[in-house]
TrEMBL record:
Functional summary from the UniProt entry: The purine nucleoside phosphorylases catalyze the phosphorolytic breakdown of the N-glycosidic bond in the beta-(deoxy)ribonucleoside molecules, with the formation of the corresponding free purine bases and pentose-1-phosphate. Cleaves guanosine, inosine, 2'-deoxyguanosine and 2'-deoxyinosine.
Protein name: Purine nucleoside phosphorylase
Xref: SUPFAM superfamilies: Purine and uridine phosphorylases (SSF53167)
Organism: Candidatus Solincola sediminis
CDD domains recorded: PNP-EcPNPII_like
Catalytic activity: a purine 2'-deoxy-D-ribonucleoside + phosphate = a purine nucleobase + 2-deoxy-alpha-D-ribose 1-phosphate
A Pfam family hit: PNP_UDP_1
Domain of life: Bacteria
Length: 280
């Protein structure tokens, strides 16, 4: 089981008390938005919002384009929890810290999470601004968030991951995309630790072993969420594409620019996921 340390328990108690005061009961759905994607946040009411640095035990979010905000609100008759910006391993944090927002979501009652990040495209069929549903992943980060975790019987967390991402939810988004015209595709995400971008040889290797896109996030959060019994839908916004024969230089500003441009359509995708999830 995943237990919280005293500082993390303080964060849970703090959020519980604030939600009770605001009469926002038991958030069932969570959405995590990565680099530059805050403009895609869905429309909610009765908003209650916290900066990461207001919450005990939660590290600050110091990456440009990452707002570092937890936002709660009403979507119809249910409460949703939005995480705008995320924590990254490359910041020098450990995996307990990186996955703490997901653990807090589970403690507060979240059952389904839509995790969204930005990624570089390895698949030559992809274009800048495409959305890739994450059907599977390859973890090349060199670390696993379940290291040291135990199951209910006290055994090491030998978590089964062959069907980590919610196939039915992603199938539904693919069907809706055919009607709505979203630039939605599907593929395999490769996770690396960062913060440096990949060498030409590394990019060719990732494509050779089956990767369609590469990023520095989502995979630790997805593994932790699965261990906690949360359904995970994953999506990467393709903010740049690689010519594997002659990779070009890429910058974080380029990533943020593309993320901002895709916001209106991505908001439609997130809203469709929320509409389906509220009916389950």
């Amino acid at each position: 089981m995943v237990t919280l340390n005293p500082a993390e328990e303080e964060a849970e108690e703090y959020l519980h008390s604030k939600l009770e005061e605001a009469e926002l009961w038991n958030p069932r759905l969570g959405v995590i938005l990565g680099s530059g994607l805050g403009g895609s946040s869905p429309q909610i009411e009765n908003i209650l919002e916290f900066n990461f640095n207001e919450i005990p035990g939660l590290p600050p979010c110091k990456v440009p384009g990452q707002e570092g905000v937890l936002r709660f609100g009403s979507y119809g008759v249910i409460t949703v929890m939005l995480q705008l910006g995320r924590l990254h391993y490359y910041q020098g944090l450990d995996m307990e810290q990186v996955t703490l927002p997901v653990k807090l979501m589970e403690k507060l009652g979240v059952k389904r999470i839509f995790m969204i990040n930005t990624a570089g495209g390895l698949n030559p069929a992809y274009s800048r601004g495409d959305f890739m549903l994450i059907r599977d992943h390859i973890n090349l980060m060199g670390v696993n968030p379940l290291r040291g975790a135990c199951d209910a019987e006290g055994n090491p967390a030998f978590q089964e991951l062959s069907n980590l991402y919610d196939q039915e939810a992603e199938d539904d988004l693919m069907q809706r995309s055919a009607i709505s015209g979203w630039p939605l595709t599907e593929g395999v995400l490769v996770g690396v630790s960062g913060p440096s971008y990949e060498t030409a040889a590394e990019l060719r290797f990732m494509r050779l072993v089956g990767g369609d896109a590469v990023s520095m996030s989502i995979i630790p959060e997805a593994i932790a969420a699965r261990f906690l019994g949360i359904s995970v839908t994953g999506l990467s916004v393709i903010t740049n594409t690689w010519d594997l024969r002659m990779p070009h230089a890429v910058s974080h500003n380029e990533v943020l620019k593309t993320a901002e441009e895709t916001a209106p359509i991505l908001k439609e995708v997130i809203t469709a996921w929320l509409d389906r999830s509220t009916s389950l």
